[in-house]
Amino acid sequence: EDGGRPQRDGDPVRELENEVESEQKKSGEAVKGMRKYERRIKELTYQTEEDRKNVARLQDLVDKLQLKVKAYKRAAEESEEQANTHMSKFRKLQHELDEAEERADIAESQVNKLRAKSRDVGSKVRDSTRFEHKK
C-alpha cells in the first residue's frame, strides 16, 4: 500500500542533500581554519626569524662590549701599575728630600755655631789688642 507514496519520515534525497550541504559547510570552515593557521604559522615564522636576527645583533653587541671591557680593564691595570711606579718614585724622592733637609739643618746649625765661635774669638782678639794698647 505504501508503494508510490513518499514516506512521511522524510525525503532521503533531501536528507542526503542536507548532509552534503552540511559537510560542504564543515569542509569550507575547515579550509578557512587551515588558511588561518597557515597565516599564523607564516607570522610566527617571520617573527622567529626577526627574533633570531635580533639575538644575533645583540650577541654581536655583547661580544664587542666584552672586548671593550677587557681593553678598559687592561688600561686600568696598566694605569695602576704606572701609578704605583710613580708613587714609589715619589716616596723615594720624598725620603731623599727629607734626608737632604735634615743634612741642611745640621749644616746650618754648624754654621751658626762656627759664626758664634768666630764672634767670640774676634771679640777676645779685639779685647786683648785693646788691653795691649793701653799698657
From TrEMBL:
> Where in the cell does this protein reside?
Cytoplasm, Myofibril
Q: Which GO terms describe its cellular component?
A: myosin complex
Location of the region described as Disordered in the Swiss-Prot/TrEMBL record: 1-31, 101-135
Where is this chain compositionally biased, Basic and acidic residues type?
1-29, 117-135
Source superkingdom: Eukaryota
Under the heading Pfam families, the entry gives: Myosin_tail_1
* Name of the protein in its database record: Myosin tail domain-containing protein
UniProt source species: Poecilia reticulata (Guppy)
